[in-house]
Write a structure and sequence with these properties.
globular
Length: 297
Amino acid sequence: MISIIIPSYNSEQYIVQSVRSAVEQQVSREIIIIDDRSKDNTIHCLRHYLKDTYVTESYDNKSETYERRFNNLKVKYCIKLIARKDIKSQTGAFVPCNLFIVTNTKNRGAAYSRNKGIRVARGEYVAFLDSDDWWEEGKLEKQLALMEETGSYLCTTDRELVFSDDEPSGAVIKSPETITFKKLLKSNWINCSAVLVKREAVLGFGMKPGKLHEDYLCWLNVVRDYGPAVNVPEPLLKYRVRLNSKSGNKLRSMRLSYNTYREFGYSRDKAMILTIRNMCFGMKKFMGSLLGKSNRG
């Protein structure tokens, strides 16, 4: 089983599109949405969508089993999605799944939410999805098949950039089909929303909160200790680009990259060299995707 972890905060504009793409994956899965004390109608919008779209079976939110499992999280909604209500909209067989909506006791940030999700997950594999991104159908199925074929502990996919509310841009950032530690050190080829990883590999590292790229630090640790990551060479992730994100503000991203390398254990000089190389290569990847000249490193 795959545990899909979706951290959310003030995500009412995009959460339905994101969760729909997770629900429609045709693999054995559970979906854990961890809301970081949203001030908008994120949870209301999501519950309304699920109620209108799927045949559901409710669980007791206050049962001892769920209270114990989601310790220090407030359980808001526990349901089993059994089938789509609109048979005409079906594009493939629907695989039932459990879905949980839980909230942090206070606003703690995405890294904290992902770490909580990792700890409470019950799947052998963990997939991450940000609440403003979405997946193509078959994404997890293709990744799972590749991981079983190669024995890799970590898998990513290519990603297509989205600059407007709804429409993909056609700009695709491609990743190497095999991502060695050397390649990953040169540039972060692995987007968090594209990841499928064995839970045992990520559980020991988690995502360290702070002024760094916590997901990049996690991938560096996993690839160093468990071997190369693999990539499905298709843009199965639709990645929304926002200028106020960690990666969108390039000067801020540069500082965070430096802190990431320092946290990983490199000296100041080595961390600065790696940061400059990472930034230059990152800009090359980005511009190449816009010009249709993206390559796999």
